[in-house]
## 1
Amino acid sequence: METSVDSITKAISLVRTIACVGAAIAWAEFLRRRILLRDDNLLSWRVMCLRHRALRARPLRGILDGLCGYSGAVAICSLGLVAAIVSLIFPAARIGTAGLFVLACAHIWAFFRAPQGLDGADQMYILVFSSLALNELVDTKGTRLALLVFLAAQLSLSYAVAGLVKLSSPEWRSGEALSAILRTAAYGHRAVAKWLEDHKSARRWIARLGLAWETTFPLALFLPVEIAIAVAAIGIAFHFACALVMGLNSFLWAFVSVYPALVYVRLNAWPFNNRLWNTISGAGLSE
Amino acid sequence: MAENLVYGLFTAWFLLSVIGQFTGRTTSTLRQFDFLGLIPNWRFFGPLPKTSDDHLVFRNRLADGTVTEWCELSAEPRHTLLNLLWNPGRRRRKALLDITSSLRVLLGPAIPDVSVQLSIPYLLLLNYVASLRPRSATGVQFALLSTDRRTASEDPQVLFVSALHEL
């Protein structure tokens, strides 16, 4: 029979594994487009350091130029990639734990250096790796549970806020905003946008169901397990569709990495005994 | 003791994240100090998404005084199935989107003040287009255009034309 420590460890391990795969891809993508980090390109540190006087004061300036200039930036991106791979391959070793700290620092560094070009997935990586690293400092059963509750709460907050702010917009409720986004060059997909244009009723219902799912996502923590699992499954499908249609591949890994935390908290913090719960218990996520 | 500190940090972090989702003075102040990006913003595409495409164009003044044609910055290729796993182009696309969106906010409806030229988005764009100049260029100018595919005509609307900067 499994102990509760085992199931918490499994949930954290799943969070960590999925996030590390996503982070490895994200850092490799950054390295592929490292030209952006050059001083004559869009994310130039030479310009970004002008945003605050403190960034140009000595001796801080020398340190920051070393860390955020082109060579330092490429080195940190490479370090992020190596840390993600090491943390994935050696999760139990000290080097794997050190990898989590490096990943947390690297993602925070990217935001500090130039937030332009970063997105919600990068924000989620900051939360995931920083909280995983924070837990490693103490690592008791209590802090592990706190870590999973924290991540599940952040995930719920993210969807609820995204849904609520859109609910106030008639453009979103009618589905017009959805097809308008899909017509843009940045997040667009001409075929899907055209289909939505031709099927206005379907467009309206897709938008409304999407908003309803986002807004009510936190209820997954309180609903019967079958429904909570269905809500999570819709989430995976949602991110898969966003990756396929809008090119938001990083969201798939970053957000889905937190789903094991949500499932663990639902299964163990609100123990309604039912059939599916018992089945999942056998799979090891429930105590 | 250390355990309680971790509980406190998680609780405070989550509460600050909740506060960070509101609009207003408190949130603005909070974000001003959040230079490490610890407070997420979960308002994806809401409440009003950006539904137009911005285009950055630039031209140069050459040593003989002639001015080149406007040239559009090349866009990243459109999404393919491979982007599901590998999509490095999204970084540049998003960076350009963020920079032009920030510049649009600074420009506002009025004629832009000269102080816009000292803003980070303006300097980022100027620095970038200046690096693309031909060897014989002595000046560079850029403009921001916008197209909205919801309108029947896809003719771009000129949002902003920069000063001609000496190189």
## 2
Amino acid sequence: MTVVLYLLIGSLILGGCALGIFLWTLRSGQYEDLEGAANRILFDDER
Amino acid sequence: MIQTLGFGRYYERRSLDPQQRPPRPEGADARDLSRFIVALPDQTHELTLAIDGLQCAACVWLVESVLGRDQAVVSARINLTTRRLRLAWRGQATEADRLVARIESLGYRLVPFDAAALAASADETGRGLMRAMAVAGFAAANVMLISIGIWAGEAAGWLDSMGPATRDLLHWMSALIALPAILYAGVPFFRSAMSAIRRRRTNMDVSISIGILLVSGMSLSETLTHGPHTYFDSAVTLLFFLLIGRVLDHRARGQARSVAEQLLMLRSVQASVIQPDGTIRPRPQEAILAGDRLLVALGERIGADGTVETGDSSVDTSAVTGESLPARVRPGSMVFAGTLNMGEPLTIRATVAGGSTLLAECVRLIEAAEVRRARYVVLADRAARAYAPAVHAAALASFLWWFLVAGAGVGPSLLIASAVLIITCPCALALAVPAVQVIATSRLLRLGILLKTPTALERLAEVDTVIFDKTGTLTEPALILRREGVDPDALREAASLAQSSRHPLARSLVAASDPVAARADVIEYPGHGMAAEGARIGSGAFCGAEVPPGDVTPELWLTRPGHEPVRFAFEERTRPDAAATIKRLKALRLRLRLVSGDKPGAVGRIAAAVGIDDWLAARGPVDKVAAIETSGRRVLMVGDGLNDSAALAAAHVSVSPATAADISQTLADAVFQGASLAPVAILVEAARRARRIMQQNLALAIGYNVLMVPLAMAGYVTPWLAAAAMSSSSILVIANSFRAGRVS
């Protein structure tokens, strides 16, 4: 049954990574301007 | 200017209504920016500005590219949601003036943000909610994963795959993930519940907090006593769904708030006060005292009510009185705060202090009306008020029945009571309204309609009467040249003379003509006209033309040596789709009314043109409010002028065009862009549709409770059933909400 334990720990680590990445995106202000970001993709000049 | 910089592609990228108000005319007033600039350690300076006039992403591209080409600029980034420009540059702090002037010459208006105000507006609550949602989401996914394992084992009848020891291990794992997550993510609810209890009140958050804490506690004790059922998954998923609702709700509110802040900032006017020693100091409007002398330059707004001391000019009073033509002022004339000087500089002696001007009077009327409006109870709260006591009663009743009557013991009785709480927890209920709001609001935004108050949709849906203002609302903001019989050469010549004037008739004339260069030798006689080399354009008397008596339409005359005088007549024109929109509103069974400050003749003509039978003319701001209040109906007010502002605030709900006075836009619940009037009808239709969907959502959420509660009270609801039922009802509600995105 130790395989269950491995799986549990593995899934927790992966989930924790996802959570950490989300919190990082939040801290770096990526949700401040959803409207602008959606439009910015259309500007193709290099800056 | 835009073309010369090689930004011609700007026009390709402008994606909104091309007839929309162009960027504002060039020309900006100097102001002191140094107070707002923040010096950074690495020799750079930073400044945050509110930017007005952004219409779409192309504007963002234009402004950022123009700034990006400047050597000094380190970074320039616009936040399109909050309409703020953050600018960082190398070198002197004074560079700011040059950079700001550059953007203003493109036609955008910039107002600096105070660093302190900026810090205060940082949205900490919103971020906290997002973090809580993320943690709850993470925990929900993991606990659910584990729970499915448990349920699968249960369904398989405890084959040799899983024994009680394994189940206990999985329960412990769930508890380990769920409990800290609940303690963290539940804080917004616990805090709100605590403050409600301290005020001896109860709200939705009290029932949510009790439910979640009770369920978690019960599940923990089940785990400790090796019991078969835990509800960790339900508790965390519940929190997750509730937090999604909160985040959506907060977003809708935050957007409304930032728009209001923005407009208030842009409205604030600095007045130039002449000191006793002759120097001129800028001072905020509120700080002006009676007796102060003010200097008002061409194109500036007058800062206080007062009398003119020197200067002969004309003043655009359209924002205050709704009159479409400027009024002539000379020494001794009364002028009002908020009006615009169209001619030569004026010196004004303030007769009242800044806080008691006509403008301030309007603001007070508005505040009184806002207080009334704040009592409006939204649909979701009305539902919650009835719902929460019923839920608690049901849970308590089932506990008492199982404990006292059926003799089931404390543990199992509590377990059943918590199952009842989980089933009834207002998850779908909490999503029912905000989800519809967010989806409908963003759809309307894409049509150029900005909903500023979160309750606007609900109030719009209840409207049974629409009251329109005339000037600038039913009609186009500018006067239009009557084209019949106008010689194109004469028009071109007149336009070249009129180029340099800011008089509305001159601007309309220029707009009607082909592009022509301005003549350099033009002299403007404010209130009369313009002259150059014997050619004159202006009023009939100024040009020496014979004016046919009895004619009151606005007009300009052009006289040239060797030519007959030419008459240019102007008229107000209704918005292109005004009549069609009125018909559409009538089809929605709304009573329509036109209330204007203008003369009966002009109002009657426009009313007939668009098809409104019920009209009132020559009504001032106070009469407009009275017209709304005595009607005894739920009124949608559509207006744009400062004279409408009190009426906008007094109405059940209000709408302004984007060309409206800043104060009207601040007050209106919704603002629409473009030359079309159709947004008014679209708004009402969308609001009614949104209300229908909200009601469906509430019915779905409550209907599911009615179905499941008896099962829970009877003790048939196992953890997996609770989780499945809760999630499916929430998903059903969200899916139904997406229908609000379809607007005809």
